[in-house]
Amino acid sequence: MLAVLKGPNDEKIPYFICEESSCKNRDDFEKKIIKKLRESDIELIIMAGWMKIVTEKFINSVNKKIINLHPSLLPSFKGKNPIKDALENGSLITGCSVHYVVPEVDSGELIIQGAIAINKDESIENLTNNIHQIEHLILPIAISEAGFTVRR
């Protein structure tokens, strides 16, 4: 499905939805996305809330044009449950990172990080909300920085 959204000033913003459940397998899912990205001549892919590991084939197909928002201060707490992991580890600070995507999970070159203190007896829900606030601050900066890099 390709649709068009209206932006705040009536700009037309195209988007594409590809539901994994409509695909035969992961390879088919990635092929459909790659095809649409190539047709659209994308400059940058931003993975925010993506929560899926993409294959090396996918990464290579877009030639270093992917950034990922991750809710930890990388290289600490890579993977699926970084906020929970930081709490269970007794960490005093955590935060979020935006990095370039490489085949090794959450290991690409860092673009920007934002840190936040973990309060004593902090709940995972409260910490998650606080990290989301920091994510909203740093992601636009990372997109701008990555934009300069991918256009060189």
List the main descriptive attributes of the protein structure presented here.
4-stranded mixed β-sheet; two-stranded antiparallel sheet; alpha+beta; 22% strand; 36% helix; 152 residues; single chain; 2 domains; Rossmann fold
CATH class of the largest domain: Alpha Beta
- By secondary-structure content and strand pairing, the structural class works out as alpha+beta
Give the helices and strands as they follow along the chain. EEHEHEHEEH
- What CATH calls the topology of the largest domain is Rossmann fold
- Low-confidence sequence ranges: none
Beta strands, count: 6
User: How would you state the average pLDDT, rounded?
Assistant: 89
Radius of gyration: 17 Å
Large-scale geometry: globular
State the share of residues found in helices, binned by percent: 25-40%
Distance between the first and last residues' Cα = 32 Å
The major β-sheet equals: 4 strands, mixed
CATH homology group of the largest domain: Formyl transferase, N-terminal domain
In total, how many domains does the architecture comprise? Answer: 2
Biggest sheet strand order reads 3-4-5-6
Which percent band covers the strand fraction? Answer: 15-25%
**Chain oligomer state:** single chain
Please state the second-level CATH architecture of the largest domain.
Answer: 3-Layer(aba) Sandwich
**Separate helix tally:** 4
